[in-house]
Amino acid sequence: MIGNYHAARRAYWFGRYNRAVEFCARADFHKCDNLRARILNPDEHYTKILARYHRRHKPRCYLEIGVEQGTTLRLSAAQTTVGVDPAPQCEGPGTLYRMTSDEFFAKHSPLYQPDMAFIDGSHRFEDALRDFINLERIMNPQGVIFIHDALPLDERTATKERHTQFWSGDIWRLFLLLWEKRTDLSFHLFRSPPTGLLMVSSLDPGACRLQHDYTQLVMEYNAVPFAARIR
Fold first, then answer.
1. Which of 86, 140, 168, 178 could disulfide-link 149, Cβ–Cβ 3.0 to 4.6 Å?
2. What pLDDT sits at residue 134?
């Protein structure tokens, strides 16, 4: 297994990307998933894209769902920076709400009108859908929502429940749903490693269809096969 990984690395170094992917496919080794992600999603790393957006657009209010170690939260220089995570592994910057996103939106969201938001919390489609619905309702209509993990590596690493070390969950279902059901939105998909970054704009805080049809949409899109994803 490790031999195939080293062979894949050598092929990658020499620019033989198709060959590198072939070696990766032969190895049951989590590092191969990271290497394949860099090959299949050749844009800048998603953190660089987020950092560039912060520099260029200077959002006044930035809200992040899923803080973990604070890597992307620290990219913010916004006047108001808000992080939401039930078990963050950092102390900020900005205001950190140590609670689920559902609790945050039920109690604290009226305090904010983000110009930029980032969804990277639960990797389950239905949770991310609720986060999007709740975020859009409080967003500046001229703002943007970034969604991580829109481009899964493969079906094995894109399941709702985690079975692999490299894992993106089934957020790809959210991208598909928005693409099909919210044609009023604008999308820009970055093929950034490891698993893509989706930017959503033309937001409508008054939109209510997703919230109204939430239960039905979750049932419908949970039944969609992996082959139907946007690639």
1. 168
2. 98
For the record, the structure tokens of 22 come out as: 């072939």
CB 118 within 8 A of CB 64: yes
DSSP bridge partners of 97: 84
The string of pLDDT tens digits covering residues 107-140 is 999 999 999 999 999 999 999 999 999 999 999 9
d(CA 160, CA 179): 20
Percentage of the chain surpassing pLDDT 90? 77
Determine which of 22-31, 43-52, 163-172, 208-217 has the lowest per-residue pLDDT on average: 22-31
Q: Are 74 and 83 in contact (CB under 8 A)?
A: no
Residue 225, phi then psi, degrees to nearest 5: -75, 155
Q: Give the helix/strand (H/E) hosting 216.
A: helix 214-222
Count the Cβ atoms, other than its own, within 10 Å of residue 202: 12
Other Cβ atoms within 10 Å of 39 Cβ, number: 16
Q: What is the DSSP string of 108-143?
A: TGGG---SEEEE-S---HHHHHHHHHHHHHHS-TT-
Q: What is the mean pLDDT of residues 65-94?
A: 95
